[in-house]
Design a protein that fits this description.
About 55% of the residues lie in helices and about 5% in strands. By secondary structure, the chain is mainly alpha-helical. It has two domains: about 190 residues, Fumarase/aspartase (N-terminal domain) (Fumarase C, Chain B, domain 1, Orthogonal Bundle); about 290 residues, Fumarase/aspartase (Central domain) (Fumarase C, Chain A, domain 2), CATH 1.20.200.10. Strands 4-6-7 form a three-stranded antiparallel β-sheet. It has a two-stranded parallel ribbon with strand order 1-2. A two-stranded antiparallel sheet has the order 3-5. A hairpin with a 2-residue loop joins strand 6 and strand 7.
């Protein structure tokens, strides 16, 4: 395969994708071409024209913020930057995962690069320079309601870029000024409009949602493959995925997933030892995984729109001589999508746990030993892993309560409705990791099942998956701690490299 520039860099003049956000966790060239700088400069020049007109109000540049918009801001532009950021230093809790923070700043850089925010060109260039290093602002997790953008977390990011607060360099938490110096970066100089534009968008929400979606999509595809391996190992009949049957169901996602499954199961031979109809965790898997596919496509569309949109207020349109004040910082689309993603994760996680439960139960696994133990009683096989999967599912279920329905008025009722998209997206990100571990647990069980008497898969693609797992993980014989094995199995099957 030929490597192109787009595989190794991000151009702020081109569309942004979830794959770009994944790559942003490590040093990454972010390109700011002349066309980008020209449009940013045009927006900046227009802002200057508007600010010179005493009769034209501009939120945040001439005024206070939020509920204090009716009061004048500070006259000095540098002071207005401090006026923007200082009061937002109210976050709490552990720092956000560093990949979310880096991805959020890439989303923010792309939005500002569209030239509609009136920022200084050096702000976009400064963000670009940061991505070439391992610098990551230290941003507390709690504080955003996702209504006027992710104000508090992005304010911490902006302050770190100015050399205030803390940041990470090569994974080590340092005073931000020290981290900037060590990274060879200059502190970012901001005026009031620059500061407001950096914080007044839903970039943390969008980044967390996009990363969660990428992870859940990988686990979803992995679970379809693991279901096929389960079918083959226990000798079930693959007729439940018949193309005519699924087409009659009428749902596009099920048609897609069943096609994947038929490809993976091609060549399998039923053992003839199973009942006419399998439990739903096998027989209804195309319908369940297909419904998940349809829901994930909805989330795909929301993420694509977020990555291709400008979230800020106000926006500046020089060609129309328009300063547009509105609510493009309101993260309701991402809130809905993240809640849907959490529900999908819960259903997929439940499917993986139920399939492992079937696999360890001698009453349903075509005569394999209980808990897949090589010597039941003397050994315990997957007993601990199966207990842990139950805990994972319980944790996912506890977190599935929709965040987008929990609106609370705040900010003197200026923000009288809020989406809580940040909470929804961060929760989806956390749950995605539990789903990945559930896939690893099921994969480990399938690898062990063949060791204790399950048949070798008869379908070539199923056999290839088993061989990849067997190459990475030794049989559980005798017992050993399996926490690392679960993680290794998850990487094998979620990566799709088999």
């Amino acid at each position: 395969m030929t490597t192109t520039a787009s595989d190794t860099s991000v151009d702020l003049g081109s569309p942004l994708t979830p794959a770009h956000l994944q790559r942003a966790s490590a040093p990454l060239p972010v390109l700011v071409g002349d066309a980008v700088l020209d449009r940013v400069q045009r927006g900046r020049a227009y802002l200057r024209t508007v600010l010179a007109d005493d009769d034209r109000p501009v939120y945040g540049a001439k005024t206070g913020f939020g509920a204090l918009v009716g009061f004048a801001g500070r006259a000095n532009e540098a002071d207005q930057c401090d006026n923007t950021l200082a009061h937002l230093g109210a976050g709490q809790g552990p720092d956000l995962p560093l990949d979310i923070t880096r991805a959020a700043l890439l989303v923010r850089a792309w939005s500002l690069a569209q030239g509609l925010s009136g920022v200084s060109p050096h702000v976009v260039s400064g963000l670009s320079a940061m991505f070439a290093t391992s610098f990551v602002p230290a941003v507390p997790r709690y504080g955003s309601v996702g209504a006027s953008g992710d104000l508090i977390p992005l304010a911490y990011a902006a302050q770190a870029l100015r050399g205030r607060g803390h940041a990470y360099l090569d994974g080590v938490r340092l005073p931000a000024a020290e981290a900037l110096t060590s990274a060879g970066l200059e502190p970012l100089q901001l005026d009031g409009r620059d500061a407001l534009a950096l914080v007044n968008g839903t970039s943390v929400t969008t980044a967390a949602l996009a990363l969660a979606l990428t992870s859940v999509r990988a686990s979803h595809r992995a679970l379809a493959s693991l279901t096929c391996l389960l079918v083959d190992v226990v000798g079930a009949d693959p007729g439940f995925a018949d193309a005519r049957l699924i087409s009659a169901f009428g749902h596009g996602g099920a048609v897609t997933v069943a096609s994947w499954m038929r490809s993976t199961l091609d060549g399998t031979t039923p053992s003839g030892l199973r009942a006419l109809q399998e439990p739903y965790s096998i027989r209804c898997s195309p319908q369940l995984l297909g419904a998940a596919e349809d829901a994930l496509r909805y989330a795909d569309g929301v993420v694509a729109a977020d990555l291709g949109g400008v979230s800020d207020n106000p926006l500046f349109f020089p060609a129309d001589d328009l300063v547009a004040h509105g609510g493009n910082f309101f993260g309701q689309p991402a809130a809905f999508a993240a809640d849907v993603l959490a529900m999908v994760t819960a259903s997929l996680g439940n499917l993986a746990e139920r399939q492992l439960d079937l696999l360890v139960d001698p009453a349903r696994n075509t005569g394999l030993p209980p808990m897949l133990a090589a010597g039941p009683g003397q050994q315990h096989g997957l007993q601990g892993v199966q207990l842990a999967t139950t805990a994972f599912v319980a944790e996912i279920r506890r977190g599935v309560l929709p965040a987008s329905t929990q609106s609370l008025p705040t900010n003197l009722h200026n923000q009288d409705v809020v989406p809580f998209g940040t909470q929804a997206a961060l929760r989806a990100y956390d749950l995605a990791e539990l789903l990945r571990l559930l896939c690893g647990s099921l994969a480990l069980g399938l690898r062990q099942a063949v060791h204790v008497g399950g048949r070798r898969p008869t379908a070539p693609r199923c056999a290839a998956l088993l061989d990849a797992l067997a190459a990475a993980i030794a049989p559980v014989d005798p017992d050993r701690p399996l926490d690392e094995d679960v993680r290794v199995a998850a990487e094998v099957v979620v990566s799709g490299r088999w």
